[in-house]
Amino acid sequence: MSRLHLAIQKKGRLADQSRDLLKQAGIKVQDTKTGLTARATNFPLDLMLVRDDDIPTFVGDGVCELGIVGLNVLEEYRLGQDEDDVEIIARLGFGRCKLMIACPESEAFDMSALEGKRIATSYPRMTRRFLAESGISAETVTMQGAVELAPRLGIADYVCDLVSSGQTLEANGLKPVETVLESESVLVRTLKPIDGAMAELVDALKARTDGVIATSESKYIVLNAPENALEDITRILPGAEAPTVMPLLGRQGQVAVQAVCQESVFWETLEQLKGAGARDILVMPIEKMML
Ligand code: ATP
Ligand code: ZN
């Protein structure tokens, strides 16, 4: 029987969350002795544990039908290909970060400052595209790591690097000023032809991961409200279509409302609901979901 191949990061920021996603999708994984592969015991799936930079190549070549990788790595890879050989089939919502231009903290930055300067980055293709789109001519200096040290070392004037909290930049006297790409992890699929049985496995795995992503953001909300507030309340409920409305015994004009909210429910949302007349609001997690 055919087995699906999924490339994930072996070690690093995406490794644990990639494995967590599979776990939540009900897939049990057993590592092999080599440490290069792992095997699912209850789903026809083998994992390839590699450096994130190699994931697009593995998937593009069709060695792995699927991969989990940051959009930043994927886009940089794609810009180097004549023809796309990988497609994104799901956004996974973890590994969020931004690829940003950063300048010395004391500088009052504007885009024209980049003209004729040197920008250190691990993402030269994306940086060049951004500069070209902004009508700036500047030089990129490609570095594999420690990009944030480049200005201090006199290698470059600016950097274009990944930022999540901004702490690393700050520690090096830099501040982020322009966003080149907003990134998160994505599930990618090869564009090389795969046979019918394999395509079915891809769909089955995707249906499960879609379910995991949907449930992680979704909540089940139950509340009581006056009937005449229903329109307002339905509008406030985030990502809820057609809530269930039931009469409350012995309370004329009052109803119970139940809905699946497909977006995050914040305290602010509850306050708004209450403001609209809702009472006894319950927010419950959803364990599994198949859409
Ligand atoms: P590898 O050994 O696999 O090449 P790496 O050092 O290139 O690992 P990590 O630092 O583990 O990569 O980051 C992997 C991915 O995590 C990044 O490509 C990016 O998509 C995401 N990420 C999220 N936040 C950050 C951040 N603050 N800095 C860097 N990467 C981040
Ligand atoms: Zn890497």
Protein topology:
Blueprint: E1 4-9, H1 15-24, E2 29-31, E3 37-40, E4 45-50, H2 55-61, E5 66-70, H3 71-79, E6 86-91, E7 97-104, E8 118-121, H4 124-133, E9 139-142, H5 150-153, E10 158-163, H6 167-171, E11 174-183, E12 185-190, H7 196-217, E13 219-226, H8 230-236, E14 244-247, E15 254-261, H9 267-275, E16 279-285
Residues 9, 12-14, 51-53, 70, 72-73, 95, 97, 162, 164, 183 line the site of adenosine-5'-triphosphate.
Written account of the structure:
This protein is α+β, with helices and mostly antiparallel strands and 291 residues long. The protein folds into 3 domains: 122 residues, Periplasmic binding protein-like II (D-Maltodextrin-Binding Protein, domain 2, 3-Layer(aba) Sandwich), CATH 3.40.190; 87 residues, D-Maltodextrin-Binding Protein, domain 2, CATH 3.40.190; 68 residues, Alpha-Beta Plaits (2-Layer Sandwich), CATH 3.30.70.120. The chain is built from 9 helices and 16 strands. The strands form 3 sheets. It has a 7-stranded mixed beta sheet, with helices on both faces. It has a 5-stranded mixed beta sheet with strand order 9-8-10-7-11. Strands 14-15-13-16 form a 4-stranded antiparallel beta sheet. The longest helix has 22 residues. The chain is flat and about 75 Å long. The relative contact order is 0.14. The structure holds adenosine-5'-triphosphate and zinc ion.
